[in-house]
Write a structure and sequence with these properties.
Distance between the termini: 72 Å
Shape: globular
Strand content: over 45%
Number of helices: 3
Structural class: alpha+beta
Radius of gyration: 35 Å
Number of strands: 28
Strand order of the largest sheet: 1-2-3-4-5-6-7-8
């Protein structure tokens, strides 16, 4: 009410000028009393001035009403927003639930993260690590956080590089705890921007295990996540339901609805769909999804390609296929072409039918992204960028 009263006083001051103008038009322009019934005594311009006076009076009343109504609405909205902002942080997240102490883990966008959190009243603390799979770099984490009025947590994370010991970064994040998960909202660091979802997992062999939790959670891809329990791996969907039981010694990453598995008894790899149906029997030393609906496999030391029905599409003939490690989602086939080596240090590109599109002329070659690929020419010690015709388009000289 105090703010509305103040707004009213400010509005009164704002409309003093048009009031003075109205008074001037009604008095200064026509100081003498005029007999409207006697047209001969009306001064020159009287009808024009009367029309202005009438229009100003009508418009003035309408404008004042609209001005006051708009001003009060804005003041009330701002007042309500101000009160709301004072009571809660600026976040679009849902109110958090009570956090649970223990370990949380995920793998997302080439980052693996694992936390061990303790709860003390409205505060959380803990340690953990982040591992950058692309650059093989590990970071140690120190965590301190305090509960906010909406149930989420304002968290300070000190991130210390294990390789560059003088490099330390302090990050401030909003955390939201749900039943058995932790969502980091809008993380914004130099290496990662976006939300991060971690699942609560068992902490390790020396702790009491919760049978309702998994031992590892390796992050969602295509709506499915690889999890482990008692040393065996399985697959869950976004509802947390097991679509592949934790019965395999190893599972790959879901790609185009398929996933590699390792049969411990046969000592070979095969391919499953996301519901656990065997698509390719475990009889290969290496087999993995490579994109374009194809699977790469090794036979007698040579790479070939087959479809998910087990039909050979490209006969084994390549010395190497650029299946990047440790990121299993960096597939050789990108934008219709795969980088392959016919022999050591002779890389080129083929299409999904096995036809050579760019000859084997490079010392090394990477996958296509955005119409360009990184390659190194024979006899040179620098990377260039080529187009899909094999022509250099960047860093050529």
């Amino acid at each position: 009410m105090t703010e509305i009263h103040s707004a009213f006083k400010r509005t009164v001051h704002l409309i003093q000028f048009p009031l003075a103008l109205r008074k001037y038009l009604l008095t200064e322009k026509n100081p003498k009393k005029i007999n409207d019934n006697c047209p001969f005594r009306k001064p020159i311009g009287y009808t024009y001035i009367k029309r202005i006076q009438t229009n100003i009076k009508m418009k003035f009343n309408a404008y004042c009403y609209l001005f006051l109504l708009s001003f009060f609405c804005l003041t009330a909205c701002n007042s309500e927003q101000s009160e709301t902002n004072n009571d809660s942080p600026k976040t679009t997240s849902q109110p958090g639930q009570a956090p649970k102490a223990g370990c949380y883990q995920t793998t997302q966008d080439l980052w693996e993260e694992r936390l061990n959190l303790a709860i003390n009243g409205d505060r959380i603390s803990g340690t953990g690590y982040r591992f950058n799979q692309q650059y093989n770099e590990r970071f140690q984490l120190d965590i301190q956080g305090k509960k906010m009025k909406d149930g989420n947590y304002d968290v300070e994370v000190i991130c210390q590089s294990k390789r560059r010991t003088n490099e330390k970064e302090t990050q401030y994040e909003t955390w939201s705890f749900q039943e058995n998960s932790l969502q980091v909202i809008n993380r914004n660091t130099k290496d990662f921007i976006g939300n991060l979802n971690l699942q609560r997992v068992n902490c390790g062999a020396n702790t009491v295990k919760d049978t309702s939790l998994f031992d590892e959670f390796l992050g969602y891809n295509e709506g499915y996540a690889v999890v482990s329990k008692n040393g065996k791996y399985g697959l869950i969907n976004k509802k947390g339901e097991l679509t592949i039981p934790c019965a395999y010694m190893a599972l790959g990453a879901v790609s185009e609805g398929t996933i590699m598995f390792y049969d411990e008894q046969k000592g070979r790899h095969g391919i499953l769909d996301v519901n656990g149906k065997v698509l390719i029997e475990p009889k290969y030393d290496i087999i993995t999804p490579v994109g374009e609906g194809l699977l790469g496999f090794v036979y007698e030391g040579k790479w070939g390609f087959m479809n998910t029905k087990g039909e050979i599409v490209v006969a084994p003939q390549f010395r190497e296929v650029n299946v990047y490690s440790p990121n299993p989602l960096e597939l050789p086939f990108n934008e219709g072409l795969a980088n392959v080596a016919i022999e050591d240090a002779k890389w080129g590109y083929i299409n999904a039918q096995g036809e050579v599109v760019i000859p084997y002329q490079f010392l090394h070659a990477g996958p296509f992204k955005g119409g360009k690929a990184k390659a190194m020419r024979q006899g040179e010690n620098k990377w260039i960028y080529i187009d899909k015709n094999g022509q250099c388009v960047e860093n050529c000289n």
